[in-house]
Amino acid sequence: MFDIDKWQEIFSTIQKNKLRTFLTGFSVAWGIFMLIVLLGSGKGLENGIHSNFDADAANSIWIFPGQTSIPYKGIQPGKYVRFTNEDYERLKREINNLERISSRYDIRGNDLISYKNEYGSFGINTVHPDMEFIENSFPIKGRFINNIDIEKSRKVAVIGDLVEEALFKNGKSPIGEYIKIQGIPFKVVGVYSENSNNDGERRRVYIPISTAQMIFDGGNRVNNIALSVKDMTLDESKQFEEKLKASFAANHNFDKEDDRAIFIRNNQENIKEFQNAFQGIRLFIWVIGIGTIIAGIVGVSNIMIIVVKERTKEIGIRKAIGATPWSIVSSILQESILITSFAGYIGLVLGVALMEIIAKNVPADSMMFKNPEIDMNVAISATILLIISGTFAGYIPARRAAKIKPVVALRDE
Amino acid sequence: MIELKGLHKSYITGNNKLHVLKGLDLIIEQGELISVMGSSGSGKSTLLNVLGILDSYDEGYYKLNNTLMNNLTEKKAAHYRNNMIGFVFQSFNLISFKNAMENVALPLYYQGVSRKKRNQIALEYLDRMGLKEWADHMPNELSGGQMQRVAIARSMISKPKVILADEPTGALDSTTSLEVMDLFREINSSGITIIIVTHEKDISEKTDRIIYLKDGIIESEFISKN
């Protein structure tokens, strides 16, 4: 099948018809190049925006106490709402599609943490075990806080990987070591890391909330509650928020219309909006991408038709001196496949190179653009599609030309 | 060698039927040098196309080298053209992006002769035409006479039984025309049958046998004096 002489013939034809080769190749290379850049940029944009959410679970809801602003049942506005363990227990009881829940008590005083002679200032978060999944703080060594820690108010801590880096400089594993929080020793039981743009997320120390309330005079006080619920639509999520508010209003004696008594941060709502926006962008990119490919196909087809037309006389000559129709069709097709594959490859390489350059030059902590990955399957399928359509576009006129009687093809001018 | 019997050929263009060849009988022996003359529309080019298996015919028969040339597949026709027939055209019909040597070598490409070997053979033929130094030149760098000699070399390279020449001197001046005719004579003397279509009397007089066509039939036939 592989006929060196045929390829030599094709190469010499290509070499001597540079403009036509360039034009055919260009429309393919350009189509693929644009497709890659388009898909890559779209993905980069999406990844960039998405990275802002990676820090917390996408469906988490955070509840913070505030200060009333509307008089209610004879109570003047300005009353501080205080959360307690009771609120945590109640939510756990009341919400039937609850996935995770954790409350937090903020320790007063300094946040200086020490290990032997090393000191550092880190965020101290007092949590329930579920916080692992709400914050997406997954242990890379040891374990997270567990239920027994809470029940027995154990003095244990889970530290961020950046905390480990700062305190455990000798490279020793922190597991089993004791760090001091406000002078009180806590045994390190785990190290976590997070996939986040924000280093602050990895510079925290988690301790059980029960321990913190006991040691640092918290009583049953809670400063905020974070929870996540099973999949909800945007509407359901909004309704859920209203219900939450009503529940707190009933238990803490404030008007449920009061929007300063408690604050609810609903990640689900934000993320749903972004997801919708991105679905739109993705659709848009695909529409343009398909448009680009179609333009490429039309371009290749046009050029192939012109090429065959331009070569009609040559085909006539070749037939007169003994070329079979198949040898004519196959050489035109092989030429077209060769050019389109090569050009498609060039477009692919240039597109990927450009995306690499862009990726290298955007700042690592960019919130807008990150990891413009390209779906190679899509890129390669698009190239193959262009090659096939170029072949097909060449095949029909080539066949017709090869069928023309040499007399007709040779007819002068 | 060539045997035509009751050959009819008509072209259909739209609703019009144009009857071009109206029952030709002709026998050409191996090694003849023949010219076919006639006014335009007499059917001489059509005859040449039928002889060259470039075109089909409707009635009668055409035998080339005792093989009936009828209802041939494209592949078969290509094979016969390649092995038995050489063409020379009025407008030379060289491939513009190939140099003289490559043009001459092209028929051998379709016979599957290796590049090196066919180029070498092509050079020999160009040498015989006195064009060896022009082997690397592209057709547009050659004069009309040179191009026609390249085309003649191309028609000869596959060692055909017959060379068909359609107005081979139509685009050349009279001196060059005579040179080309001398060349044909020389080729003919090696035993190849040559059929030349022309409307120039002094060209036809250089051949051994002249056939006059008129309205699709052979009007008269002469044996030339030389």
- Approximate helicity band of chain B: 25-40%
Span from first to last CA of chain B?
22 Å
Strand order of the largest sheet of chain B: 6-7-8-3-9-10
Count the helices of chain B. How many? 7
Q: Tell me, briefly, the overall form of chain B.
A: globular
The profile of the biggest β sheet of chain B is: 6 strands, mixed
Question: Helical percent range of chain A?
Answer: 40-55%
Largest sheet of chain A: 8 strands, mixed
- The CATH topology assignment of chain B is Rossmann fold
CATH architectural designation of chain B: 3-Layer(aba) Sandwich
Query: What is the percentage of strand-forming residues of chain B?
Result: 25-35%
What portion of the residues of chain A fall into strands of 2 or more residues?
15-25%
Order of helices and strands of chain A: HHEEHEEEEHEHEHEEEHEEHEHHHHH
Mean pLDDT metric of chain A: 84
Measured by residues with Cβ under 8 Å of the partner chain's Cβ, the largest interface is: A-B, 28 and 32 residues
pLDDT < 50 runs, ≥5 residues of chain B: none
- From the alpha-carbon coordinates, what is the Rg of chain A to the nearest angstrom? 34 Å
| CATH superfamily heading of chain B | P-loop containing nucleotide triphosphate hydrolases
Count of distinct strands of chain A: 14
What's the CATH C level of chain B? Alpha Beta
Number of helices of chain A: 13
